[in-house]
Specification:
By secondary structure, the chain is α+β, with helices and mostly antiparallel strands. The strands form two sheets. The protein has a seven-stranded mixed sheet, sandwiched between helices. A two-stranded antiparallel ribbon has the order 6-7. A hairpin with a 6-residue loop joins strand 6 and strand 7. Helix 3 packs across helix 4 and helix 8 packs across helix 9.
Length: 258
């Protein structure tokens, strides 16, 4: 039997989504199972769960160009039409294009949001260190948000890049690159600087560091787990998870006790 908007809402409420709050979602829609109305109904159920005073947010990268591309052929980044990267799943692109959705200006660390706090969350996204202070990720934490993994793996929690930024650990890899960006004077190449998010920020960290942090946090009992449709799902309190992540990273590099 196909799932419905009301059955999905019941599952989300049972998982612990707070009406009126901010929820940052990562989703594998396929894992939910057949839904009457498809991905649009999944999004409608999420919006039902946060309610009219709540805000739904999602991370958006965009379809890449490559370092050896002819720069004369590289398209200017245009957030109005820049699709969410395909490996993030169809729900993120559905959120980006939903009526009333807003997207931040950072091409790679972009966030889209729907709801009363969407304009505040997505405004003035710094081009340097786009996962740290002053970014949509910092604002999501400030809003005491929840992080929802809707059938998505534990290693997809983008907000843990904020923990990487804040943690006092050695040897953080830095990436410097350019993007062709719109300006009032027309398209211009713009410099970006970021802690490298393609792999763990320090080469000594395990490749699955985000999954390990999330799994260890689950053992504290502060997150909830359950099924939304057929999807194994988790709901994390965002500030507590990030504080835990900062401590986890710093302890990883702490010298052993004598």
């Amino acid at each position: 039997m196909a799932l419905t908007r009301s059955s999905l809402l019941s599952d989300l409420v049972r998982l612990g989504i707070r009406p009126g709050g901010v929820v940052m979602v990562h989703a594998s829609v396929r894992s939910i199972g057949p839904v009457t109305g498809g991905v649009n109904v999944v999004l409608q159920a999420l919006l039902d769960a946060v309610g009219p005073t709540g805000t739904l947010a999602a991370y958006l990268d965009f379809e890449p160009f490559y370092e050896d591309d002819d720069t004369a052929e590289v398209p200017v980044f245009d957030k109005r039409i820049a699709h969410a990267a395909r490996d993030h799943g169809i729900l993120h692109e559905t959120i980006r294009t939903w009526p009333g959705a807003l997207r931040s200006d950072h091409p790679d660390a972009g966030v889209a949001a729907i709801g009363p706090l969407a304009a505040w969350i997505t405004a003035e996204h710094p081009f340097h260190y786009g996962y740290g202070p002053g970014t949509p990720f910092a604002k999501i934490l400030q809003a005491n948000a929840q992080v929802l993994l809707l059938g998505a793996p534990l290693d997809t929690i983008t907000l843990l890049h904020y923990a990487e930024h804040e943690a006092r650990i050695p040897g953080k890899r830095i990436r410097r690159y350019r993007r062709l960006m719109p300006t009032p004077q027309g398209p211009q190449w713009t410099d970006f600087e970021e802690f490298d998010t393609a792999d763990p920020v320090n080469s000594e960290l395990p490749i699955d560091v985000f999954a390990r942090i999330a799994a260890d946090f689950l053992t504290t009992g502060q997150a909830s787990a359950g099924e939304v449709g057929a999807a194994s799902s988790y709901l994390f309190p965002a500030p507590e998870l990030v504080r835990f992540g900062v401590d986890w990273l710093e302890r990883y590099f702490a010298p052993p006790p004598r």
